[in-house]
Amino acid sequence: MRTFHTSTDAALPLTGERTIPGLDVENYWFRRHEVVYQRLASRCAGREVLEAGCGEGYGADLIAAVASRVVALDYDQSTVAHVRARYPRVQVMHGNLAALPLPDGSVDAVVNFQVIEHLWDQAQFVSECARVLRPSGVLMVSTPNRITFSPGRDTPINPFHTRELNADELTQLLLDAGFATVTMSGVFHGPRLVDMDARHGGSIIDAQVARAVADAPWPPDLLADVAAVRADDFEIVDAADRDIDTSLDLVAIAVRS
């Protein structure tokens, strides 16, 4: 759930379906996405990479700084045009994630961050990822943790999500597609964000959502805190070291046999 604003500074409208860099009111969500790209980019170094569901394209461009080649795929034609114009070092394609337009065994890594929860046929998509990966290739997935993102609900809060997952469900989905190993970690608030939570009634997330639902003005202190969030204000912690069910987002790394 996000504040639905548009901006003349962004070529793509902010609808709530994808996050966009450079907007103060969207900065919390952008940084929460960005941290996963930053922490996992090293796994793409020197590799041929597919980003399946690239959105605005900032993540594919970040990966392109270290990868040998990045193919960015998205279903939305206007998004494809935007990425092609803004990020020239990314090879962008239009296509359906249920039928990836790549040959078998053609990439070393597939990146799918904050996308799988939007898909109707998640099992088909994960099977397609396994198909296009070379032996020992890696699928990296991040997605909102259903337990904390839509607590106590059978249907997602976000109207753009079709099915949200918990850690066990995501792990099983990947194993069922034939991946040999799956490791899980979680995204958590670091100390600065914990302080911000305390300043805004216990949750800076709930404070933002409340303004979006009510279509209400943002208090200056909330806007200032949201605009000040950095990627390094989030922590990514292995499931062995912290209760994964309390994480904000899940981060899975699956290795093809």
TrEMBL record:
<keyword id="KW-0489">Methyltransferase</keyword>
<feature type="domain" description="Methyltransferase type 11">
    <location>
        <begin position="50"/>
        <end position="140"/>
    </location>
</feature>
<dbReference type="InterPro" id="IPR013216">
    <property type="entry name" value="Methyltransf_11"/>
</dbReference>
<dbReference type="InterPro" id="IPR029063">
    <property type="entry name" value="SAM-dependent_MTases_sf"/>
</dbReference>
<dbReference type="GO" id="GO:0032259">
    <property type="term" value="P:methylation"/>
</dbReference>
<dbReference type="Pfam" id="PF08241">
    <property type="entry name" value="Methyltransf_11"/>
</dbReference>
<protein>
    <submittedName>
        <fullName>SAM-dependent methyltransferase</fullName>
    </submittedName>
</protein>
<keyword id="KW-0808">Transferase</keyword>
<dbReference type="GO" id="GO:0008757">
    <property type="term" value="F:S-adenosylmethionine-dependent methyltransferase activity"/>
</dbReference>
